[in-house]
Design brief:
The complex is a heterotetramer, with two copies of chain A (83 residues) and two copies of chain C (154 residues). Chain A is α+β, with helices and mostly antiparallel strands. Chain A contains three helices and five strands, in the order βαβααβββ. Chain C has a four-stranded mixed sheet with strand order 1-4-6-2, with helices on both faces. In chain C, strands 5-3-7-8 form a four-stranded antiparallel sheet, with no helix packed on it. Chains C and D meet through helix 1, strand 2 and helix 3 of C and helix 1, strand 2 and helix 3 of D.
Amino acid sequence: MRLRVLYFAWLRERIGAAQEELETSAATLADLVTELRGRSDGHALAFADLKGLRAAIDQELVSFDAALGDAREVAFFPPMTGG
Amino acid sequence: MRLRVLYFAWLRERIGAAQEELETSAATLADLVTELRGRSDGHALAFADLKGLRAAIDQELVSFDAALGDAREVAFFPPMTGG
Amino acid sequence: MPERRPEHERVRVQAAAFDPGQEVSAFTAALSASGAVVSFTGLVRDGATPLTAMEIEHYPGMTERAIAAMVADAMARFGLEDARVIHRYGRLSLRDPIMMVATAARHRADAFAAAEFLMDYLKSRAPFWKKEITADGAAWVAARDQDEDALRRW
Amino acid sequence: MPERRPEHERVRVQAAAFDPGQEVSAFTAALSASGAVVSFTGLVRDGATPLTAMEIEHYPGMTERAIAAMVADAMARFGLEDARVIHRYGRLSLRDPIMMVATAARHRADAFAAAEFLMDYLKSRAPFWKKEITADGAAWVAARDQDEDALRRW
């Protein structure tokens, strides 16, 4: 499955990219994270602790056990600080 | 004691005057009300039931058992509906 | 915190119309330490019967004193940088702004709480009386028990 | 109640500055059935260290969707006549308005509750991230536990 992965805030800075296009067969978001950790030291560091992270599939906030299904866009970011 | 008495809203309409100057020896607001009831049928009607009324002495909200002391201005009115 | 504005400049009781948006702009522009500004505007609206006009009677002198005391209380209680209360009296038309409250604090919880506190006190403790004029005649607005009850939360 | 404004006109996510007072005026002028309008404005303010600037990053597309969903939820839950959310992104200066919320309802309790509901959700569920730039460098603002806790009351 072809996927666009987006990173925001300090996650983006740590990984050194705002987005990546990749091919994956991951079934869940947690599986995808395991794959992403292997891509670089920056990725490994960024995804070291999921407790401080949030994720969205196709622009909807989800938990890390969510199935990827036919997702086209996945995003990872720290807790939001809007308002 | 010389006193200015003010009336507001439906109390003013029922009494037919916005203010009166009067001489009184009433010790408390309740005593003053008893005197005022005797002034006219309109007064008697206006002061028939104190439960729905509020009062102020020298522009401070008080209860009907308040002493008049050296008050110069007393006001009677229905519950406020500002805001 | 900058030097505080004198209490009397925070309260305006007037017959003239005002623009709540303009007031919010002026209020906000004068702030220096706040992160949160809350405003409340009360508008004349129809009740069960379509409204022709609203007449608001007040107790000149006591009104300003009572509101200034509420504002001083809110400033201290919620650590506000500034607050503003404007309240009209006289004859108003449908949709006219009747009054407004603005509050400014570092954090939103204090700004919201202070605005609600001021509204609750203005409703039941500021000497204003509203009269609704409709095609059926004129009637004084009755105080609502829930407005009196609202004071108990503070 | 008049015909309702489409959801997307109620939400603006923009780099451009805006004037909260002007927005309150426009919002209020378009109402027909409300007696209560509440506005909240968030301003850039200094933290422990004096601020040089604030940078706000957002997730284009998801931001608008997430806020539109919150607004629709607030409209239904509190029976609002109208609501408005404006939120900036990009580089902001000290005292700039960051965002605002406006709500309109027949009674004040609903207008206040809806504004607080929207603020609580915007803080923790709209994809914005703030970075503070000071003389010491740049640092991402950390989410506060109390902002997450605030959602539990709804």
